[in-house]
Structures are given as C-alpha cells and as structure tokens.
Amino acid sequence: MTNPRQIAFNALRDVHKGAYADVALDRVLQKINLADRDRRLVTELVYGSVRRQRTLDALIDQLATKKSQQQPPDLRTILHLGLYQLRYQERIPASAAVNTTVELAKENGFAGLTGFANGVLRQYIRLAEKSPEPLELPENPVERLGILHSFPDWIIQVWLEQLGFVETEKLCEWMNQTPTIDLRVNLLRSSIEQVESAFKSAGVLVRRIPSLPQALRLIGSTGPIQNLPGFREGWWTVQDSSAQLVSHLLDPQPGEVVIDVCAAPGGKTTHIAELMGDNGKVWACDRTPSRLRKLQQNAQRLNLHSIEICTGDSRNLPQFQNTADRVLIDAPCSGLGTMHRHADARWRQTPESVRELSLLQTELLAHTSTFVKQGGVLVYATCTLHPAENEGVISQFLAEYPHWQIETDSLDLPDSAYSVPPGWLKVWPHQQDMDGFFMVRLRKTNNSE
Ligand SMILES: C[S@@+](CC[C@H](N)C(=O)[O-])C[C@H]1O[C@@H](n2cnc3c(N)ncnc32)[C@H](O)[C@@H]1O
C-alpha cells in the first residue's frame, strides 16, 4: 500500500485515538518505503489536518447537516483530509482533492456516503469561488481567531490579553507555519566559517542569525540531519536561536560550577559547557533517564567532558545546597511558544495542565535556588507564552524570597532588543522569527529586605 492519502488517514486514525502526531506518523512511515515526494505529502497531510482541526470542523459544521462531532469519526477524518487539501494545498488541483477523498471514503467503509463527501467538498469549492473566505466567522474576537487559525479559545484569550487583536493574529499565523531548523556551531570543534563552507560544498543553504554569533538557519529541505557535513564530528548541534539566548543570559565562566536542573536532552547543558571552554563542572540533572541517555550521546558527539549526570527529581537534591556559581532552570512547561513544532500540542494542553505546571515550576524554583552560592546567579526559562508559568512564577518567588533580585542592568546578550521591563526577556516568535521563549536572570544578594 503506497497511497499517501490512505497512509495519512491511517496515521490520523491513531491520532484521534490518542497517539501523538509525530509518533503515529513515524509508525506508518516506517512500515513502507515511500518516495521522498510522497513522504513529504503524508507528513504535510497529517500535521496539517491535526493543526487545522478546529477550522476544518467549523467547515464541516457549516457545509453538512450533521455537525462534525456527530459524524462517524473516520468519516470526519476523511473530510478533514479533503478540506485541508482544498483550503491549504494550492499545488493540489481541486479535482484531485475531491476524487481522492471520495476514493478514501469508498475504501474505508463509507461506500454509501461517497455522494455526501463529494457534496461537502464541491460545496466548499463553490463558496471559495465566490468569496475569498468561504468560512462563516463569528464577531467575537476570541472565537473568530480561534476558528480561523485553529486554536482553542483559552490560548487565544491568553495572547489577546498580552498582545491585542492584530499582534495575536500575526502570532497565530506564525505558529501555523512549517518550523525552521537552526544549528549552534560548537566553537570548541569548528567555526561558523568552516561549517558554512562545508555546507556550501554539499549544496546545503544556510543563513546567519543577526546577533547570535554561533547560529545558522537551514534554508529549504535538507534530508536527514545526521547526514549533513560535520554532524558526526561534533561541529554543530540542532538548537533554535531563542534557546541559544538562554545560556548566553546565564553567562557561565570557565572553572565555575553550574547546575542545569532540567537538563535533558542537553541542548542547553552542552551550550553551557561550550561557553565555559569545557573547563569547570556542569551538573546535568533530570528525572527522565531516557532523555538523559540522549544528553550523554550529545555530549559525547560534541566531545565535551565537563558534564556530569545526576538522575532524579530536582525538587529533592539536598547535596547541591550552596554549591553552584550558577543554576539554570529550563522548566517543564506548556510549550505555547513552540506549538509550530508539535502539531497536536495546542489540543493537549489545558488551563488545568498550565495550573499544574506552574505549581511544579514554583517548587523547582524554591528548591533549586538553594543550590546557588551567595552572590551567584539563577536563570529561569520556559518555552511558553503563558504569564502564569513565567511572570507569575517569578513575581511570587521574589515576593517570598527578598534576597533574590532580577538583574536588569547586566543583560550581556548578543541582542537585548527582546528585553522588556522589569528585566525579563520575552521572545515573541512573530516579532523575532524564532521560537517563543521567556527567560529571566536572578541574583542571590546579602540583602534580606
Ligand atoms: C524543557 S525540558 C528541558 C530541555 C533541556 N534543558 C534542553 O535544552 O535540551 C524540561 C525537562 O525537565 C525534566 N523535568 C520535569 N520535572 C522535573 C523534576 N521534577 N526534576 C527534574 N527534571 C524534571 C523533564 O524530564 C524534561 O527533560
């Protein structure tokens, strides 16, 4: 079986039964040897249909007599696939989208409903010919943005409160794009010029990121990342630009003791070790052994020796009290800043999961801040854009522990343009064209007032 739409349908069926979209996709792709072009189509159809689920459901609600949620689940998935192609895949002719969807319905137990599937799609085509926006949208701004850009209302609400309508819409559009891949050059093994030159010889296009001296962005599709020049030699690692800012904010120095309390799979741990010239000690603590194994492999490939692993819950590591010059908390979070990388993330998080995460973050901060020596530094970072996990956690901590202060005047970053008062850094993806991130640097002072 090599029909890309049938393969996409099989993966989507698993997703609707609860599987993660990337896992379901990998599972179906591993079973067959598809041409690159078909593989890309399956990927686009699976991730696109999952990402745009709310918009596609709204279209079914509008075009069919029965609401999307009342349709048989597999038929709803087939309609998602057809409408996704019509609405978002300009390169696929409308007739091909309709015919293949009808065929899918016939092959998957809906032979009696092919006329219905055909009718829904043809009705969409007719409306799209008459109007640039066939979808009927409500006036209410939260629902309007949520339906048009396919996000749950609560996420739209959180962003509207911070950004207003126009910027929230830009952020939604940015989050629906295909993600880019950035690399961080390991300056202990290579140089940015050497990596650029090796890529050029291999016909791989990259561009530099202004203000981040170690970063390169891949342009276009490159095939498997491990096959790119310099990977095995440890010349570079994959890390988004905004994630690179975090270790710069921490500003670790050679010879210091640094504890990375949520370290796996090691993107930031290895960056810290590189910035220290691999001289000193970087403790990599995490409670997930499988992710720590990846950290170990990454450190080996990058030829870093100053990293030591500690497996366990960082809320309970009394041995580290007062031992660190610097601590990094790259906290587990709801990931609202990286939803373009995980098609189903927006449907998995809830206001309740955000509340639970903010409690975990608060506990991690309270305990691991005791690891820092007097005068030392702690950086708290997340890849989410929810104030309850960011400003909320830090404000509460500062109110409870007055000897900690935000460092506002010494943000020695490649580019401090993202800095917002009172000293925290917030990367809004649609403004900086990188993953959404929050980070703040705190210092432990003598002052107990
Ligand atoms: C955002 S990820 C860290 C990413 C990592 N810093 C990097 O740059 O590659 C958060 C990590 O926190 C870990 N984690 C969650 N709760 C923890 C806890 N209580 N103690 C230690 N690690 C925890 C998770 O296993 C996960 O690996």
TrEMBL record:
PROSITE patterns with a match to the protein in the record: SAM_MT_RSMB_NOP
Enzyme class, broadest EC rank: transferase
GO biological process, one term: regulation of DNA-templated transcription
Residue ranges of domain SAM-dependent MTase RsmB/NOP-type in the record: 171-445
CDD domains per record: AdoMet_MTases, Methyltransferase_Sun
Enzyme Commission designation: 2.1.1.176
Record key words, sorted: Cytoplasm, Methyltransferase, RNA-binding, rRNA processing, S-adenosyl-L-methionine, Transferase
Primary residence: cytoplasm
Catalysed reactions listed for this entry: cytidine(967) in 16S rRNA + S-adenosyl-L-methionine = 5-methylcytidine(967) in 16S rRNA + S-adenosyl-L-homocysteine + H(+)
Alphabetical list of InterPro entries matching this protein: MeTrfase_RsmB-F_NOP2_cat (IPR049560), MeTrfase_RsmB-F_NOP2_dom (IPR001678), NusB-like_sf (IPR035926), NusB_RsmB_TIM44 (IPR006027), RCMT (IPR023267), rRNA_ssu_MeTfrase_B (IPR004573), RsmB-like_ferredoxin (IPR054728), RsmB-like_N (IPR048019)
Subcellular location as annotated: Cytoplasm
SUPFAM superfamilies xrefs: NusB-like, S-adenosyl-L-methionine-dependent methyltransferases
A GO cellular component entry from the record: cytoplasm
Protein residues bound to S-adenosyl-L-methionine: 262-268, 286, 313, 330
UniProt-annotated catalytic positions: 383 (nucleophile)
Entry GO MF terms: RNA binding; rRNA methyltransferase activity
Function of the protein: Specifically methylates the cytosine at position 967 (m5C967) of 16S rRNA.
Family classification: Belongs to the class I-like SAM-binding methyltransferase superfamily. RsmB/NOP family.
Protein's name according to its UniProt entry: 16S rRNA (cytosine(967)-C(5))-methyltransferase
Organism: Cylindrospermum stagnale PCC 7417
